[in-house]
Design a protein that fits this description.
This protein is an alpha/beta fold. The chain has one domain (27-206, 236-259): Rossmann fold, CATH 3.40.50.720. Helix content is 41%, strand content 13%. The chain has helices at 37-48, 61-73, 88-102, 125-149, 172-191, 210-213, 218-225, 236-247; strands at residues 27-32, 51-57, 78-82, 107-110, 155-159, 198-202, 258-259. Helix 4 (125-149) links the parallel strand 4 and strand 5.
């Protein structure tokens, strides 16, 4: 099996779910990094599940508005809010704005992140600092505000990576940042004892997104696609389905866990 040629464009064609749940507007979700790739698919799926969705984006307002438009075209409710997740003031404002617009937060999904490569050597320190700043500091800030703002009985989900289990060369900064995210998830689940809030991570394997395709040849993409027994790359919708389960009623007994949604990649 060979992975198909990729495109770096983000498709918004066709709703993920045929219809929006009838209880829309009663629950609200915030999705960081929700304008493209996995985050976009999560935002659209949660809207299909009946959530009003706050679509966070760092800088691409047009992509965020496209996501909002796709959700609204399917009958859902969404709004876009800009914030750099590594900036403490902007994250605080993001949560304040989410509450101002919808009145409550029932779920927070932290999907924003970066993935530059760098070997573990002195010349990669700048790359390491960049990845830690966005991926780990960003996760700490988002989870910290989620812990204060999510309603009793709510859900918090952070995106990690299945690459942690592979230890590929040049992934050191990225793996370090996501291992930290998983640690934060486990600790926060215990810190929120007594509020019936679950805190989990979803760890995708290779997924066909702009973030994954960037800098890779078609030969490299095809090779990675063969690693999992299912012999394909994951799709953003595969990951969105996993998040939907954890955020939904059926995922209520899953807490302080890492769900490795990777087709057997690791």
């Amino acid at each position: 099996m060979t992975a198909t040629s990729h495109s770096t464009s983000v498709s918004t064609a066709g709703p993920i779910s045929a219809s929006i749940s009838t209880d829309r507007g009663l629950r609200t979700a915030l999705v960081t990094g929700g304008s493209r790739g996995i985050g976009q698919a999560i935002a659209r799926q949660l809207a299909a599940d009946g959530f009003s969705v706050v679509v966070n984006y760092a800088g691409n307002a047009a992509a965020a508005q496209e996501t909002v438009a796709a959700i609204e075209a399917a009958g859902g409710r969404a709004t876009a809010v800009q914030a750099d997740v590594s900036d403490a003031g902007q994250v605080a404002t993001l949560f304040e704005e989410a509450l101002r617009r919808y009145g409550r937060l029932d779920a927070v999904v932290h999907s924003a992140g970066v993935m530059p490569m760098g070997a573990i050597k002195p010349s990669s320190l700048e790359t390491f600092d960049q990845v830690i700043d966005t991926n780990l500091r960003g996760a700490f800030l988002v989870l910290a505000h989620a812990a204060e703002k999510v309603a009793t009985g709510g859900r918090i989900v952070a995106l990690s990576t299945s690459v942690i289990a592979k230890s590929f060369p040049n992934y050191g900064p990225y793996i370090a940042s996501k291992a930290g995210v998983e640690g934060l998830v486990h600790v926060l689940a215990n810190e929120l004892r007594g509020r019936s809030i679950t805190v989990n991570a979803v760890a995708p394997g290779p997924v066909g997104t702009e973030l994954f395709f960037k800098g890779k040849s078609q030969e490299q993409i095809d090779s990675v696609a063969q690693v999992a027994p299912l012999e394909r790359l994951g799709t953003p919708e595969d990951i969105a389905n996993a998040v939907s389960f954890l955020v939904g009623t059926s995922g209520g007994w899953i807490n302080s866990q890492v769900l490795r949604s990777n087709g057997g990649f690791a």
